[in-house]
## 1
Amino acid sequence: MGTGVLSFHASTKSLTGNLGSESASSQSGYVGVTPVEGTKHSEEPLSTLLDDVRSVYGQPSHRLTKLIDLALQASESCQEAIGFIEQSQIMNSDIEMQRAQSFVYEMLPYRNLEEGTALVVASLAMAFINMAGTPFDKKQILCVDRILKGVYSSPFMSVDKAVDFTIDMEDCGFVMDSSGLNIIFEDALESGFASGE
Amino acid sequence: MNRGLPAVSKAFLDTTVLTDILLKSGELGLWSREAIKEYDEILLPVYAMKEFSSGPLSYWIWLYNKFALTKSLSKTILAISSMVPMKPRTAQTALEALSLCNNSIPISGMTEEENAEFYRQVLLGKIMRAWKKRRNVVPGTNVVDDLPCFTEGDPLLKQEDKTLNNAACKCHLRRGKDCCAAAIIKKHPDDIAALIKAIEGKSRREDVSRRAVLHKMLNTPKLSLNARECRNIGDAYFAIQAPRDSVILTTNGKDHKELADALGKQVLCPQDTP
């Protein structure tokens, strides 16, 4: 039996459709990120979390298990990064955040459990893209960790909850816009796209 | 930030600044995000939120829905380009931006549909975040001039096709009842007259429609305004409603200054910044 740390927001109805089914994306030609050697990964928290899933919803799907596992590993990297940054070991902290980044990208094909979950994982990935290699500060690492904990403890997240998480990210200085898309669309708006000029 | 203007501690936000803060990131909208930090009190009229909802937010919802319905990044880009007469520079920019979009996808091997789904979800976050933050653009934002006939309904996500609908956010004028914004403006007939004089003889489409609605409010104040006429008040609303001890913050300085000058009020725009 688990610890009861999970807090699912989705209705049973929506879970019926999600659990046990695999998305097209997870079966596509996705090229996963090779696990980084030396990544610390405790089996205990994952099995505990999955026990919680089983106790509430029965046998979890492969997608749910993968998402929780990857979020957990990414969170562990964040915690390592926080430890390093507190000792002013910026390089080691950044190495841990690179690991977290690769886990977040690996989460993408498994994110479509619920609209909010998908939104927050996609936004997290976009925030990493926009960081463009700049090392994270402590506030930002803590923020990413909060979100990852949110994902593995509430993998069926509502849009409202996910939006709150992205507001937290924005407040920590993350940018979750697509610069390419913004260029196209802002240019179109300036060209009179909406006014018909 | 000393711009050679009398020191004021209150900023009255117009729709362009609200849009910059809520929908733009990075260099885009930077001026607005920096400018509001200069003031002790930020006044946000509900009219700006109304314009934001029916204008910029609805355009981004249009873009979001293109992703939801076409399930394709390239088709969405084509849809954007078909809406504007593409200048060569714009076409070039579009191609570069498309390439930027494709390169920014963090994993390889995603299908066209999965690619579009990624952007759709990022846009869903952007739109919902902007709407949720509208009343608190900076901590302590003071929302003023409530408009009871304007309902601030949240954008609704349709589960079946993932489209967004912001129809719940609109004017609900009761038959025979006057537009709430008009009722506020009509209390200032001298200001209305001064604004009419300021845009006398101007032939731009927005000036013509603004003049018509100002004339109607001044000459036949008992006649009600409809939702379209309410929209036509536009910048005149900000000129009349900005408190005398505030500055109107806008990125559209040209239009606002013309009107605010007529009433002896201050405007600050990016062109005023050294």
## 2
Amino acid sequence: MRRFVILATAAIFAASASAQLPGLRRRPPVPPAPVLVGIDALRADFVAQAGSDKVYFGGDAAVLTAPAQATLGAQAVWLRRHPGVVVRIEGHGDQSDTREHALAVGARRAEEVRSHLVLLGVPAEQLTTMSWGKERPAVLGTSPEALALNRRAVTVLVR
Amino acid sequence: MTVRSARYLLAAAALLAAPAAGQQPAAAVIAIPPITTPDSDSGGAGSAAAVAWQASQLIAADLRTTAELVPIGPNQKDYYSYPEVTAPTFSRWRAQGAKYLLTGFVRSRADGRLTVGCYVYDVVKGGRDIDRIGFVVAPGDWRRAAHKCSGLAYSVATGSPGIFDTRIAYVAESGSLNERVKRVAVMDGDGNNQTFVTAGDTVVLTPRLSPKADQLVYVSFVGGQPHVRLADLGSKQQRPLVPGAGMSFAPRFSPDGGRIAFTMQTGANADIYVANATGGSIQRLTTAPGVDTGPAFSPDGRRIVFESDRSGTQQLYVMNSDGTAQRRISFGGGWYASPEWSPDGEWIAYTRRIPGVGLRIGVMRADGSDEKLLSTGPADESPSWAPSSREILFHRAGPDGRPALYRISIDGGEPRRVATPLDGSDPDWSAVLD
């Protein structure tokens, strides 16, 4: 029963996400993707089509903001068109956090992105997660701007 | 290393606990005249005389790193004869203001090894030694014997175990700050004898030594997922603590070395578990939604302090080591993280994260009272106790973002840099070795 409700919710979410994206509803089912050769070409296409491979978070939070949800909506469309692609969602903390807590926060952010993509209809088999904690800052320094750019989850195509 | 005679922790605790319980006693002067030798063949490298001179210098250097003792010497002109090891002339040291005197000898044996003996005296009272210690060591192990002598002097003066014959594990860092090369390194407590345990081909974090400093747990990203690994420092063998499990981190040994507490991540949820160091049974200790991590055992192994955000912000909690009776002990603003129980059981050190200020090292009593911040930040973390329970080792990132190791007294004062060949983070200070 519970599983049914979740599936139904996922279907509604997926439908509403599609509704925001012009073109998709007129041409169901999802058209075959253009043939791209090599992971680098796929990655470039993913970033170009989805707008970004990254979403950003508020301080100490794993809550998806409206811009983050919009980005994930576009990522979900691309991933559904490329069912053979597997991604690794890499969550990051920022330098103001302690080492071990940052690992947990990064994992939380990656999981938040993963479950949102599943809600948008991406098969769970396409999605893996990991956390970098605060080990791979995108931007150096401890300014509020630098910290904000490091609190992120990156959708990395692995194959 | 064979212990020949060791009257450890004699009545010194009782004798010396009296001067100023609760307030910081002034540093005491200890005279370190050159350790002598009864050997007639003196002078050559590796001879008993040469080792005696090097050991004297090392003992003075050890004691100079403490807040409680001020060594004078060694000075060649203060050389004494072998019989004077046990019958020193107190008056000359009294005249120099010394409270303690350390004498000793190094004698070569027929089997090629060395006998090392050390004696500590109360210069003011005179009479026979307060305590003595002796070893038979291979010539290459003279440093450990000297560290043991330093430890003897320190424990006589303070009542706390000496901190010199110890090991420090830490993460040696190099390369760009965006993508640091990190290697687990282990060195003697005085910075000598550094060796790398991992090669630098994958990110590694938070090494922790077993009580005997013969094993190490740490976090490795090898294979893509951060997970706890257990390394044997003798055989160099290493393996995942929990084979096949997903993400795990924050490992700490139990005081008997038999168990390892750590955190396992499942989806958005992080909980604390305990595993046998030999593999096998795993027990889950926390079930709260959110992040429970940073578990650290009390010295009797019966309780665990940890950090949890179950109240909304990261705070410190204590539970029994079977997971029962969880209760919050920190209530200040900001966040509390990476708690560590002091070896004497009295204190809990932690990293406190204060918005607008940064990360600072603090201590509180094990019941949460008497909280005080020790370091000024803004990027100090990963506290680890000295075996004396009087000092804390931690790392501080400088304005350029590069971390270095520092030690700070729990009585306050400025932290002092601990030299490492490369940048250093995530330090762990072992107990005094057997």
